[in-house]
Specification:
Elements: H1 3-25, H2 36-48, E1 52-59, E2 62-69, E3 75-82, E4 100-102, E5 105-107, H3 111-130, E6 138-144, H4 152-160, E7 165-170, E8 178-179, E9 181-182, E10 184-193, H5 208-226, E11 230-231, E12 235-236, E13 238-246, E14 256-265, H6 271-282, E15 287-294, E16 297-298, H7 304-317, E17 323-324, H8 332-336, E18 343-345, E19 360-362, H9 363-382
Parallel strand pairs: 3-6, 3-7, 7-18, 8-17
Antiparallel strand pairs: 1-2, 2-6, 4-5, 5-19, 9-16, 10-14, 10-15, 11-12, 13-14
Helix pairs in contact: 1-3, 1-9, 3-9, 7-9
Length: 391
């Protein structure tokens, strides 16, 4: 890398840290959801880079950002991040929206999950576009709302924005490891019905909570057996009851009870099929219906995107790339399954410190992410396939 390129990369690295702080200071907790301020700031940054930017406010205060450089119909890579965060709640040593930098880390809600990833992808795009490189294939950045709840932003993106590309990187916090995919997230309602009556004469009614108690015993046994289902890359499937609601008052026999069940699944495991299994298990004891479905995402270990991402990580960090699965759910399947684009997850920060107090991200990881992303963007959007060799 020549001196001019080194100076530009250093400028982009500084920008990424500064932009992470700016985004953390903009509260986008979800619920209630309010990503518009973050979307506008990202839109300003990307517009200054000369990208073709759209801010899509699809609901009050909820917005996606899309930015394109080069040919939209011939994209090399797509980059994705989400602008919302989970609520901050209590227990913070520093203000959750203060973006305090200390001990080599930037602290605040969303710093790891995943405003640093969003900032790093924008800084990498700046490096590519200011370097004078000729884009042989287009480049797309997508920053979406509502990842932490019901994926309204990603669903909206699928409706509004066609995408075809050679590769996609979802910039979730992976500690700069290359994550080839994640289990899918499916969820279900299980409901029992009874007959209400005055609590002083319970024998005149049918207690829906008692019926649910029987159903829960069967669900617990089913969940234990469900974990025997395995995938060589993604590990074990899991199932768990997460919520329960029932009854209207203490002195009334309840006529309704509901639990929500989640299952982490592999490619090929469909919510409809699991729903039928649960209904067959519970029979007439309860009624089961699908609540949500987000499929699994999985790239082959020898796929070009996994190999290329690993090579870029090794060149920047000087260490052998760790290639593994993402432990949580993500929106990767919107790209790998929905758009048919080979997808990996790769970003600064540790998912283990997300969704809790004192979330933080190492400043050096943000800086390294910029260089890794820039190298990947160059591989897919600047160099021709033949120039990339077998990667």
């Amino acid at each position: 890398m020549d001196e001019r390129s080194s100076r530009l990369l250093e400028e982009c690295r500084r920008d990424a840290v500064a932009w992470t702080g700016q985004l953390v200071r903009l509260n986008s907790e979800n619920p209630p959801g309010g990503e518009l301020a973050c979307a506008r700031r990202c839109g300003e940054i990307l517009t200054e880079l000369g990208m073709d930017v759209t801010i899509d406010e699809f609901a009050p205060g909820r917005a996606n950002v899309t930015a394109f450089a080069g040919e939209r119909e011939r994209l090399g890579s797509v980059w994705n991040g989400h602008l919302d965060t989970v609520p901050a709640k209590d227990g913070w040593e520093d203000p959750p929206f203060g973006a305090v930098v200390r001990d080599g880390s930037l602290w605040g809600r969303g710093s790891a999950d995943m405003k640093s990833g969003c900032a790093a992808m924008m800084a990498a795009a700046k490096y590519i576009l200011r370097s004078g490189a000729q884009l042989r294939r287009g480049l797309a950045l997508t920053l979406v709302a509502d990842e932490e709840c019901v994926n309204q932003g990603a669903l909206r993106l699928r409706q509004t924005t066609p995408l075809t590309a050679a590769a996609c990187v979802v910039c979730e916090p992976t500690r700069l490891q290359v994550h080839y995919g994640n289990r899918g997230f499916t969820s279900y309602y299980v409901r029992t019905y009874g007959r209400s009556c005055h609590g002083c004469e319970p024998w005149k009614g049918v207690n829906a909570i008692y019926k649910m108690a029987h159903a829960l015993v069967m669900l617990e046994r089913f969940a234990a057996a469900f974990s025997d289902r395995t995938n060589p890359q993604l590990g074990r499937a899991t199932m768990s009851v997460g919520t329960i609601r029932g009854g209207s008052s203490l002195n009334t026999v309840p006529d309704f009870c509901e639990v929500e069940v989640e299952a982490r699944v592999f490619p090929g495991m469909r919510a409809e099929d699991i729903c039928r299994e649960l209904q067959a298990l519970l029979g007439g004891e309860a009624e089961v219906s699908v609540r949500s479905e987000l499929p699994a995402s999985l790239a082959a270990l020898d796929s070009p995107i996994v190999r290329t991402a690993s090579r870029c990580v090794e060149r920047v960090t000087g260490q052998k790339a760790v290639v593994t699965k993402f432990p949580a759910c993500s929106e990767a399947s919107f790209f790998s399954k929905g758009y048919g684009i080979p997808t990996v997850l790769l970003g600064p920060g540790d998912i283990g410190c997300a969704h809790k107090a004192n979330e933080h991200v190492a400043v050096e990881e943000i800086r390294q992410a910029v260089a890794i992303y820039a190298m990947l963007m160059e591989a897919y959007s600047v160099k021709e396939k033949t120039e990339r060799g077998n990667n």
